[in-house]
Design brief:
Chain lengths: 143, 418
């Protein structure tokens, strides 16, 4: 299965992946318009300090603690992609407690949010990958 | 082979998924004491709060049993005969088994208060039926008295607060949520709940009930209309007395095997090892129940699985204030507090033992991972991670592996099920 992988040495810390991720969630056609005056809360997040930056998003583990521990059954695996049913999620944050990557985060409406590899927007590669100007995030099959 | 599972909640469902994962075609029979499709027990408070519905609180989709080819029997297991490998239900039905899983959960513990028999409107808070009965008993003028300021008592209080005229919580312990918080943490949460309007009487017990009046050991008497008993739960092990080794719960190894061949146990009724402390414990929490059940299922079906990553861990929130805790609270302490944001890390011998987060809980799982994997703190930037959980604190090479390899071989995303 193809997944998002991070090449830390190429990351510029530009945060464009976060903007593209937030844009993907809007289903809009123009990024600037869709995100104007909004505080973005992306499902991929940059960690950075003075020297290093890299993006972190769901690893889509094959034995995911988040799915196994989910209280409601809102987190499921479909074709290797870990999906969140935001209607079913009650925002208990057991998945935030469980994820060793810190890749699941709270959202404004109470349910948690996470990367679903743009599965719902049916893109070729996820938007964060398409939007990365330096191939620091790639979408690949690595066995 | 016929694999029989006593229990239709997280551990039982985990077992079904574990069995089918192996490709096993074995017959599966689930004995459910409650006449319902599997539902998420912790959601009963959210149901009363109006945040979910009976339909949405189903733990698995409608077609779960058909898809997994399970026979679901509504009934109560009454007798296990391990020599003849027979299970008898309370209505006389006999269910033969080849392998049996005890996933019967826990039962509410109700102390024998003087005069309790005279209180008709009293409820425990463990099942959908409890929630429905409690809801039916509540009216806009109801004064509710909750005995027990633990996870169940306070979730119940939150769930029905908007339906009650007054809400008082009594607990013998001097602090609320004493099973998961230290004194300072519980003070923060208590302040939040008091601001909402919940009244506490802590370090107090009920001496007696005189009709709908509870007389406390302090002499104070509290009038109420509805009583919720949430003192605690006990592992539901009665069926297995004299059959398998029972301490506080049914003792299991890391394969979820009990002391008797072909009988497994998982979830609230089982007692296994806490990875954070090495102690043998009942860890009555849903994620643990699922993972133990899944492990038991794989092994019952002839596979080979180990689950040795269990630990106490809680994610819980009250009126918007989130709490995440894990592990044990021994060792040296790192503490930060700012308003209602509170962080405490407990560490020693180069390992993280446990943590408490209140308010800001983002990326808590990174701390959980350190406990779960027993990561030597000398291999990470501990000072950095104390301030802020992140992968930044790991060595570049470790991070490269975490973010750059296929997750099939990621240890930290692996349950230890091989």
């Amino acid at each position: 299965m193809r997944r998002v992988y991070v090449n830390e040495e190429w990351c510029l810390g530009c945060h464009l992946c976060e903007y593209y991720c937030a844009f993907a969630a809007t289903n809009g056609t123009d990024m600037a318009r869709a995100l104007r005056d909004t505080k973005i809360n992306a499902r991929i997040k940059i960690e950075e300090n003075d020297q290093i930056s890299f993006a972190v998003s769901c690893r889509h583990c094959t034995e995911p603690y988040c799915v196994k521990g989910c209280l409601t059954g809102a987190l499921t695996i479909a074709d290797g992609i870990i999906l969140i049913d935001r209607e079913k999620c009650i925002g208990c944050y057991t998945c935030i407690l469980s994820c060793p990557y810190g890749a699941i985060s709270p959202s404004e409406d109470g349910a948690v949010q996470k990367c679903e590899l743009c599965a719902r927007t049916a893109g070729e590669a996820p938007m964060c990958v398409k939007g990365c100007p330096n191939e620091a995030i790639v979408f690949e099959e690595r066995g | 082979m016929r694999l029989v599972i006593i229990g239709n909640s997280a551990a039982g469902i985990g077992a079904v998924e574990g069995i089918r994962q192996t490709g096993s075609q074995d017959e599966i029979v689930i004995i459910s004491g409650e006449p319902y499709h599997t539902y998420s027990r912790p959601l009963i408070s959210y149901l009363l709060l109006g945040r979910t519905t009976e339909e949405r609180m189903r733990y698995r989709p409608e077609d779960f049993y058909t898809k997994n080819r399970c026979e679901l029997i509504f009934g109560t297991a009454a007798k296990v005969e391990p020599e003849s490998k027979r299970l008898t239900l309370s209505d006389g039905r006999v269910v033969p088994y080849d392998k049996l899983l005890a996933a019967a959960g826990s039962v509410p513990f109700v102390p024998s208060f003087a005069g309790l028999g005279g209180v008709r409107k009293k409820f425990t808070f463990m099942s959908l039926e409890d929630a429905r009965a409690l809801e039916a008993a509540l009216g806009p003028t109801s004064r509710v008295l909750v005995i027990g300021a633990g996870l169940i008592g306070l979730k119940c209080a939150e769930g029905i607060f908007h339906r009650a005229a007054r809400m008082t919580v009594v607990d013998l312990a001097p602090n609320i949520l004493s099973s998961i918080l230290d004194a300072e943490g519980s003070e923060i949460v208590q302040g939040h709940l008091e601001d909402i309007g919940i009244v506490f009487r802590l370090g107090r017990s009920v001496a007696s009930f005189e009709g709908y009046r509870a007389v406390l050991d302090s002499g104070e008497s509290l009038e109420f209309d509805v009583l919720v008993l949430a003192v605690g739960v006990r592992p539901n092990t009665g069926l297995f007395k004299g059959i398998v080794k029972i301490d506080r719960g049914i003792v299991v190894n890391s394969r979820m095997e009990t002391s008797r061949a072909d009988i497994y146990a998982a979830g609230d009724c089982a007692q296994g090892t806490d990875v954070s402390s090495g102690q043998s414990k009942v860890i009555a929490l849903l994620p643990n129940a699922y993972m133990q059940g899944e492990c038991a299922g794989v092994n019952m079906a002839g596979g080979s699985a180990v689950f040795d990553k269990a630990m106490p861990m809680n994610a819980i929130g009250f009126f918007g204030l989130h709490i995440i805790t894990a592990g044990n609270y021994n060792g040296e302490v790192y503490c930060e507090r700012e308003g209602r944001n509170y962080k405490k890390l407990f560490y020693g011998q180069d390992r993280l033992n446990g943590y408490i987060l209140i308010g800001d809980v983002e990326k808590a799982g990174i701390y959980t991972g350190l406990i779960r994997e027993r990561t030597p703190l000398s291999t990470i930037d501990f000072g950095m991670i104390c301030k802020r959980p992140g992968l930044m604190a790991f060595a570049r090479e470790d991070r490269k592996v975490k973010l750059g390899r296929p997750s099939e071989v990621v240890e930290t995303g692996d349950m230890g099920v091989y």
